[in-house]
Amino acid sequence: MVPIYNINIIIMKKKIRVRFAPSPTGPLHIGGLRTAFYNYIFAKKYKGDFLLRIDDTDIKRNKKLSIKYILKALKWSKIKYNKGYNRDKDIQYIQSKRIHIYKYYLNYLIKNKYAYYAFDTVKELNLYRKDKNFIYNFLTRNKFKNSFTLNKNNIKKYLKKKKFVIRLKIPTNKNIIYKDEIFGNIKINTKEIDDKIIFRSNKKPTYHLASPIDDHLMKITHIIRGKEWLSTTPIYIILYKYLNWKIPKFIHLPLLLNNKKGKISKRLNYNDVPIYPINYKNFVNNSYEYNGFFRYAFINILALLIGYDLIKYKILNIKKIIKLFNFKNINKSDIKINYKLLCTINKNFILYGNKKYVNYKLYIYLRSKINKYKVKKKIIYKIINLTKDRITLINDIWNVANYFFINPKKYSLPQNIIKYIINNYKIVLNFINDNIIYFNKNLVLSKKEISNFINKIKNVNLLKLFRISIVGELVGINLVDIISILYKINKFIIIKRLINFKKFIFLYKNF
RNA sequence: GGCCCAUUAGUCUAUUGGUUAGGACGUCAGAUUUUCAUUCUGGAAAUAGGGGUUCGAUUCCCCUAUGGGCUACCA
User: Fold this and answer.
1) What is the pTM (predicted TM-score) of this model?
2) Of A214, A239, A257, which residue constitutes the final position of a domain?
3) What's the number of domains chain A is made of?
4) Which of A141, A267, A454, A489 has the fewest CB atoms within 10 Å distance of its CB?
């Protein structure tokens, strides 16, 4: 038998565990959420664990709000993480509460000379940094004040002052080669890498210390994160080798770019594509939810962004997304978000998604718009069913259904219709008068009777005029449906609108 | 500047050595619909450029260009 090497077998050897580790520096945007989603689906596919960790080693501003937002956003996007053994806590791993753990490993690193003290200030180093090629590592570390250059007494003196950082000692002139599951082999020489600061002068660890340690302690098997980490991964690997730990597998995801300027969504663009999932207080006020996206459509958008062919599948539920998951589906190049494509996904959810849920959401929205008017629930649902296939976003429902609730305030007539009115003023006037009389006479009308009445009108221009008198312009669903629904809402609406239109037509009399 | 990564129509992508380079959204034209939207039919539109390797390169290698990332006591 020839062994078949594929990812499934490699993964199945032990339970896989992945993690999403956002830094609470601001609201979680679609890029971060997409990383979380990939982690989540990956874990579910292979029946593993998906953990949440907050990477907040040295963060002050917006921290609390950001964490709240992260939890809300994950919940809204239906991304569920394992809560671990303590179910009362929302989050099991918060780095700011684990500083003592990092210090333990830090001591080990220093003892074994894998890390060392350094005393140069930022100001001093900045002078060297004027040379853009400057690097603080085996090439230059002899020039500076640190454990290697100072004698024991001097080191003690500096340590007493308590102003020091701890740097990771990067090995001399060595090629670090690692395999990324998506990008393949990555090779970086250690001469390109700084002796990274892993412990700050304010006694807090940096990402380069805390994150790898946590990943090990959390038994993470696959590091799934954005591509921006591709060239800093060697630091991670060096640290793991120093600590003699098993290096996890790496899956780096291509970045999300803005539609127009090609810059990363994290930094730019608030105009065209929404980048946040939901609104939250004043923290976020332009989101997918706010702009009328369904959360299930949003999940499909996340699926699109990790390589699913949404054109083929139209709309997918979580179960199917998990079933169809293949880590290879994502491709290497960065993704430009196309807003129209996202809208299409939302529209597909309206057309092919859960009918009850779609109708309910549209009902809630419409209800909020027509608070003043007393219209029966049943009728609103009927309106929704007749109009919803014309919209792409939830908020659009008002644009295609408003004429059921408010009388036209103005009339927009195309040129040929205006000409028709002027040339056939008497015919038009008689037509409207006849209609008024008809609807006045027949206060009880079935849909069939209305249909017969409309179908008798053979003149296209008069039909168009009829529609304009009811709707205000040449848009909307089938005229028979419009009239029969308006009739159900109130028997006198049609007559009222016809009379209004008659007054308007009067302007054309003198032409 | 250095290092790392990417590059198929406007956009998302299929084709991992042999295809008339396929699909979808968008766009344009026509048909249907009493209007509009839908739907249907059809059209235009791409392997960044230049060198190799090969009988043959979108696919493998090199150079250039473009875009992005990293180059912090941010993550």
Assistant:
1) 0.91
2) A257
3) 4
4) A267
